[in-house]
Amino acid sequence: MENTTPLEILKLDGELGQVYQGILEACKEIAEHLRYSTSNKIQTTNDFGDVQLDQDVQTDSLIFEALKNTGMVYAGLSEERSYVTQLDDNGKYIVTFDPLDGSSIIDTNFTIGSIFAIWPKGDLNEMTGRKIVGAALALYGSRTNILIYNPDTEQVDEATLQKTGENELQWVISQKNIRIRTDGRYFSPGNTRSIQYNKGYRDCIQFWSRNGYILRYSGGMAPDCYHIFKKGEGVFSSVSGEPKVTPKLRLLYECAPISYLCEKAGGLSSDGTQSVLDIQVKGYTQKCDIIIGSREEVERVERFLQNGK
Ligand code: AHG
Ligand code: MN
Ligand code: MN
Ligand code: MN
């Protein structure tokens, strides 16, 4: 049957658009690479103490190379190389990214992703997430999708990797202007080892369980947050119970990029007291608590955490 709707290929113009093109190119390669790869632990750890898989370092290299090829990226930092890697002296941007989110669930063939934030060139340690100028969240599941903040329309759009020719894969726009409603029924509670030390978080999870909320937790921040964007509602949380259970997720590579997308889509992000985008960057391995998603649900978690103190 003839396809009557014209395919709208995702194209972005300008210098920032070229950075996005690099990201799109890298994610396309990663999607193809992962489909036929095997997971082997290699004998190295990253600065966060994670034992690296060969896929962590392969996807990391693919992204660094694609960013360099754009000629628009001054420097890059990633979960696997959490220091400044200079790419192009003339570049105007810094890209921070998690090349492979979900390496602990890749052996079970759960959905995994890549997370990106684009910052202006400068000292990241003098910035907050408010300086971010673009972000993307790719998902490698039964399909390959990406959410991007489109600087031309100032909206969050979704693209899907599709076969457009015999052997040609292209990013086709599959949903425009993704919005997150103010309240939501889905909850995705992460870092739950903390609840024995954090009464507020424990009470909050109990509230969700007793009030008809629906659990959605895969063990990957990328797919769990993607669920919120796609359904347009819900809340993802990763909350610590200091001093025994410390924050788990990384500000530059995971929390700030997804918070940027979430707030651009009408949602809210919080570290318990302030927006994740207002957290002052203090180092390249900084971690933070995060609650993200539907505005009223995030505010409810903040109240539970305050009351539990
Ligand atoms: P990564 O695979 O990039 O190291 O990140 C894993 C993270 C994140 O995706 C997820 O939300 C969290 O680890 C899951 O941990 P818990 O189930 O212990 O919360
Ligand atoms: Mn890791
Ligand atoms: Mn991750
Ligand atoms: Mn990772």
General description of the model:
This protein is an alpha+beta fold and 309 residues long. Helices cover 29% and strands 28% of the residues. The chain is built from six helices and 17 strands. It has helices spanning 14-35, 54-70, 199-210, 221-231, 251-264, 295-307; strands at residues 41-45, 51-53, 73-78, 85-86, 93-101, 112-120, 134-140, 144-150, 155-163, 169-175, 186-190, 214-215, 235-238, 249-250, 268-270, 287-288, 290-293. The chain has an eight-stranded mixed β-sheet with strand order 4-3-5-6-7-8-9-10, with helices on both faces. It has a five-stranded mixed β-sheet with strand order 12-11-13-17-15, sandwiched between helices. Strand 11, helix 3 (199-210) and strand 12 form a beta-alpha-beta unit. Helix 1 runs antiparallel to helix 2. The longest helix is centred in the N-terminal third of the chain and has 22 residues, at 14-35. The protein is globular and about 55 Å long. It starts with 13 loop residues before the first helix and ends with a helix. One manganese (II) ion is lined by residues 98, 101, 221, 254. This is Sedoheptulose--bisphosphatase. Residues 11-161 form the Fructose-1-6-bisphosphatase class I N-terminal domain. Pfam families: FBPase, FBPase_C.
